[in-house]
């Protein structure tokens, strides 16, 4: 797998990855999430132009099999979306994208990765906890994370339990690597 910036012509493929990655939500009783539309092309383009849209590309044909979009929020790099096509799942692809995002965050002087996710879906909060993310309590939420949660609530995502999570990023010269 090769992690690289998304190319402009790949953005529709990222939407396809999102649709495929959403399908398993139907199996855990979340059909509204499975049927939710992926980020619009103009939104993906905004992240791409900002240098915050990365893909994991297949080594054979260089086609994206996963993507991550992120933006700085209150001193951390907030992972807005991480989607892995089910055909590429369980191969460390998501972990590699998160490690890339962590490296980029450190280079920009950001101290953590943050994200919001479903609390009880096995490939959501429990997965991120295994990677070292911790769930934030309500008093720990920054103004930016509160804004994001309010937007998610307005979109109907609070129908299922959600959490904010954070992974502290050690300095690049420290021996412990993030997103182990």
Largest sheet: 7 strands, mixed
- Radius of gyration, whole Å: 15 Å
Category from helices, strands and their pairing? alpha+beta
Give the overall pLDDT as a whole number. Answer: 93
Give the strand line-up of the largest sheet: 1-2-3-4-5-7-6
Residue runs with pLDDT of under 50 for 5 or more positions: none
Percent helix among the residues? Answer: 25-40%
- Strand % is 15-25%
| N- to C-terminal distance | 17 Å
* Topology, number of strands: 7
Reading the helices and strands in chain order gives EHHHEEEHEHEHE
Number of helices: 6
Describe the structure.
- With 180 residues, the chain is an alpha+beta fold.
- 32% of the residues lie in helices and 24% in strands.
- It has a 7-stranded mixed beta sheet with strand order 1-2-3-4-5-7-6, with helices on both faces.
- The longest helix has 15 residues, at 93-107.
- The model has no long low-confidence stretch (mean pLDDT 93).
